[in-house]
Write a structure and sequence with these properties.
Elements: H1 2-22, H2 31-55, H3 60-63, H4 65-76, H5 82-97, H6 103-116, E1 127-131, E2 134-137, H7 146-152, H8 158-163
Antiparallel strand pairs: 1-2
Helix pairs in contact: 1-2, 1-4, 2-5, 4-6, 5-6
Length: 168
């Protein structure tokens, strides 16, 4: 089992590295680049589904900090596999309740899943686009409480968060 977990940690880290490498293609004007991104994230989403079947949520305690973050990233990018995203969200909620996963990462996955379901997000982590050069979040359930809710899970206020994306 220990060897399997070590191999799983390496596999997850490798998947995250491939994701980072390919992510620039996600919003490319070239359909072949977009297709490559979709194929990669679908393959990774399928594999994460298998991992969740076998191990549950891959927590830092199980696979180490880097691999646990990689699993979250893979779930975050499984946009065309809502079943995988929903399962990851459910398992990650249990892990956060047990103190075994990051509430901040859970908040991002929660918003991402809600937006993919066509629902309003909670924390304002998902950006719909730009208006007059300023990032605009997808609609939020309680926009007036967004920063308060963000603070509860360790996410900086919205204005600080979007400043990272704004052209200097």
């Amino acid at each position: 089992m220990a060897h399997d977990v070590a191999a799983l940690a390496v596999e997850l880290a490798d998947m995250a590295a491939a994701d980072h490498q390919c992510a620039v293609r996600a919003n490319s004007d070239d359909p072949a680049d977009q297709l490559a991104w979709r194929r990669l994230t679908a393959r990774h989403g399928d594999r994460l589904g298998e991992i969740m079947d076998e191990y549950g949520w891959p927590t830092a305690e199980l696979v180490g900090e880097e691999a646990a973050r990689a699993a979250w990233l893979i779930a975050q990018h499984a946009d065309r596999q809502l079943d995988v995203q929903r399962r990851a969200l459910h398992l990650m909620q249990q892990a956060v309740s047990a103190g075994a996963a990051s509430p901040r990462e859970l908040a991002f996955l929660c918003d991402r899943t809600l937006v993919n379901e066509g629902r309003k997000q909670v924390y304002g982590t998902q950006i719909a686009g730009l208006k007059d050069g300023a990032p605009i979040p997808w609609p939020c359930e309680e926009p007036e409480r967004m920063d308060e809710l963000r603070a509860e899970v360790g996410i900086e206020p919205f204005d600080e968060y979007v400043a990272k994306f704004s052209p200097a």
